[in-house]
Amino acid sequence: MVSPLDDVARPPEEVRPPGAALLPEDSPHRALEEIQLPLDALEERAARCGLGGIPTKVRARERLSAADGLAMYQSPDIALLGLLADEERARRHGDVAFYNVNIHINYTNWCNKFCEFCAFQRRPGDDGAYCMSPEQIEAELAAADPAATEVHMVAGVWPALKYDYFLDILRAAKRARPDIHVKAFTMVEIDQIVKTAGKPLAEVMQELRQAGLDSMPGGGAEVFSERVRQELYPKKMSAERWIELARDIHQLGFRTNATMLYGMTETLEERVDHLERLRALQDQTGGFQAYIPLAFHPDNTGIDHLPFPSPPERLRAIAIGRLFLDNFDHIKAYWVMLGLPVAQMGLNYGANDLDGTVTQEKIYHDAGAGTPQQLHLDHLQQLIREAGRVPTERDTLYQVVAR
Ligand code: SF4
Q: Is residue 26 domain-resident?
């Protein structure tokens, strides 16, 4: 039987069929007009699969409604969604697809939130439980790829960790690599850090900034459904608190990303509601850089009877993100969770970013991600070129890195 994880479990060498030609680096770029199909042909096809009117709205840059969002989740024509999302991607980004050179540090797996979907969490003393000291983080970063421009630090939530610990790990990261951009702490972690500090959010964020925090990854939103939260992660913050924190943090001048963890027990309507709330917040603050749809990995979790979302569903999630979130510049195909082939295909379904080289990712690998723990730079660039895009290195804030 073919496992749904087969496509992510292959070694990276098998992603490219033997003998397949790469696009030459100087291949001509395609202008937007070259990939656009006639609108009446698109509408005719859309009308046959429940997507009527959406091509016209996309081309006119008219905002899609919740009903459109639901139709996109229900339509059998994922390829049409891909065509529309690819056109919108090309309009914004031409042939450029971004990657970065980054390092992941999951500084502790101690956690008291007990989310059912999580395979990473441990309690101190459990097999495999760990909490890195500032010195360990400093040593790991000092030994890491000198070309890295970003360290991504997220972890579990353990209230006994002192406020100073978080300041110290940020200082340790900057001591090891003064030049590196520190992107750290999901909203869930920040919520706990603020409680532990016992100070106002603005003061805490200022102190974290002085210690080395540059931006935040924005995870921890899961799916904004109180029903699903009560069922699977009741100890985690509510959607309202996540949104309030993100709004305040954006207004304090920090950029973050936004995510949705899909493929658990949420309904399609709840997915659309999640996207609507992200879009509304982005209208207010403009503080989100990228949207990253995260496919739920079931292995070693409390809900391992659920399937890993199929490749078409993973591509659909990317395309809907591009089409529905009209105020997000960047849609990321996060290869660690999607698997390399789907992430690569995602660059033709609306994504303009593959994420980075990533060293030592633990959270999704504990949940069964069969992807490598690191991609070499030339491999990442090759994946992008094979997808027909021009690999372009970015920093965390999407500035092009010239080496
Ligand atoms: S998802 Fe995060 S908050 Fe939830 S149990 Fe896992 S580490 Fe803890």
A: no
The position carrying tokens 């439980």 is: 129
Atom of ligand 1 nearest to the CA of 114: 5
- Taking the centre of ligand 1 as the mean of its atom positions, its distance from the CA of residue 121, in whole angstroms, is 6
**For residue 111, how far is its CA from the centre of ligand 1 (angstroms)?**
6
Do 244 and 349 belong together in one domain? yes
Domain extent at residue 64: 31-93
Residue 6 to residues 2, 59, 314, 357, Cα–Cα distance (Å): 7, 37, 14, 22
Residue 15: inside a domain: no
Radius of gyration of the chain from its Cα atoms, rounded to whole angstroms: 21
> Which pLDDT value is given to residue 219?
84
CATH number at residue 231: 3.20.20.70
Q: How far apart are CA 246 and CA 58, in angstroms?
A: 28
Residue 51 and residue 114 in one domain: no
Query: What letter does residue 149 receive in the DSSP assignment?
Result: -
Q: How far is CA 271 from CA 34, 267, 276, 301, in A?
A: 33, 7, 9, 21
Q: Which of 75, 93, 111 is the last residue of a domain?
A: 93
| Phi, psi for 77 (deg, rounded to 5) | -95, 75
Q: Let me know if residue 13 belongs to a domain.
A: no
Query: Of the residues 110, 111, 228, 237, which should be mutated to test ligand 1's pocket, given the most ligand atoms within 8 Å of the CB?
Result: 111
Residue 403 lies in a domain: no
In this structure, what are the phi and psi dihedrals at residue 110, rounded to the nearest 5 degrees? -65, 130
- Domain final residue pick, 93, 122, 143: 93
Tell how far the Cα of 152 is from the centroid of ligand 1, in angstroms: 16
Residue 289 sits in the same domain as residue 185: yes
**pLDDT value at position 19?**
34
For the chain, the domain total comes to 2
- The model's pLDDT over 322-376, given as tens digits with 9 standing for 90+, comes to 999 999 999 999 998 899 999 999 999 999 999 888 776 666 666 666 666 678 8
Q: Which regions in the chain score pLDDT beneath 70?
A: 1-31, 360-373
Residue 21 pLDDT: 38
Asked if residue 346 and residue 224 are part of one domain, the reply reads yes
Q: 3-state SS string over 348-387?
A: CCCCCEEEECCCCCCHHHHCCCCCCCCCCHHHHHHHHHHC
The predicted-structure confidence for 36-53, as pLDDT tens digits, reads as follows: 899 999 999 999 999 999
Q: Within this chain, do residues 85 and 113 fall inside the same structural domain, yes or no?
A: no
